[in-house]
Design brief:
Strand content: under 5%
Number of helices: 3
Low-confidence stretches: none
Helix content: over 70%
Distance between the termini: 77 Å
Length: 66
């Protein structure tokens, strides 16, 4: 039984979830790369929006103080 596991099961210790998808064929590398780029763009847009909101709040607070 142990030999079967060593031969037919792939080592997954220390692997990321993205690597696991690639190893087990759940998704191909090109699709994974496209998904990651989409997520990064989405995250960047959220950060930029948050920065604009923060700046607006600071400006509004400064105007109220005057």
């Amino acid at each position: 039984m142990g030999v079967f596991v060593l031969i037919f099961f792939k080592e997954t210790k220390g692997r990321t979830l993205e690597e696991m998808d690639l190893i087990f064929g759940a998704i191909d590398e090109q699709q994974r790369r496209a998904d990651v780029e989409h997520t990064l763009k989405k995250t960047q847009a959220m950060h930029e929006e948050n920065a604009e909101t923060t700046e607006t709040v600071k400006t509004t607070e400064q105007e109220q103080r005057q």
